[in-house]
Amino acid sequence: MLVGVLAIHGSFHLHQRVLNRLNISNVLVKNKKDLNKTDALIMPGGESTVISQILYKTKLDNEIINYSKKKSIYGTCAGGIIMSSKIDDKIVNPLKIFNISAERNSWGRQIDSFTENVTLSFSKDYFKAFFIRAPKYKILSKNIKVLSKFKGEPILMQEGKHLVSSFHPELGLDTRVHKYFIQMVSNEKI
To answer: What tens-digit pLDDT sequence spans the chain (190 residues)?
Structure first.
């Protein structure tokens, strides 16, 4: 299995570090050629307006949309915003991969960043979640499985072969969310 990490903006190197710790082969994705080598893709956090502009300028937007029809994608924070069906800000063009509506910076601005111990439906121990200008999501489909909530809001969700989180699991040492995604991809390949 080869997992790609979208490397046009944001915390892509931190996701690569987690994948390396898990001994998962990975590659930084900067273009169509890189994308087509991979079995799954992680879209990292960062500035969603910048990511959106780069995707559309380089025409990677359509490549990722087509890719999502066959292969798994995990979007963290801004990556999840980009994957959304609807976004509260017209500056960002959603890829409409995941049936959620995203509201940018809903947990507060940069100065309001925080960490919180949250529960994951697939693990009994708390997970330390890092919220940095994190979005809130509204579910638009009954097909979405909520894997974690914070203050009643969904913060980790699965829809079919795709995963989205409001928080940044790559910032801590806990690899459980990445492991869950890898397991999703492995099951898809069987």
So the answer is: 999 999 999 889 999 999 999 999 999 999 999 999 999 999 998 888 899 999 999 999 999 999 999 999 999 999 999 999 998 878 888 999 999 999 876 565 666 677 899 999 999 999 999 998 889 899 999 999 999 999 999 999 999 999 999 999 999 999 999 999 999 999 865 3
Catalytic residue flag (residue 178)? no
Residue 168 is among the residues annotated as catalytic for this protein: yes
User: What is the domain extent for residue 115?
Assistant: 2-189
User: Is position 170 annotated as part of the catalytic site?
Assistant: yes
We report the CATH number of the domain holding residue 173 as 3.40.50.880
Six-digit token string for 172: 């801590």
The region that residue 120 occupies, defined by phi over 0 for left and psi between -120 and 50 for alpha, beta otherwise, is beta
- Single out the catalytic residue among 9, 15, 77, 159: 77
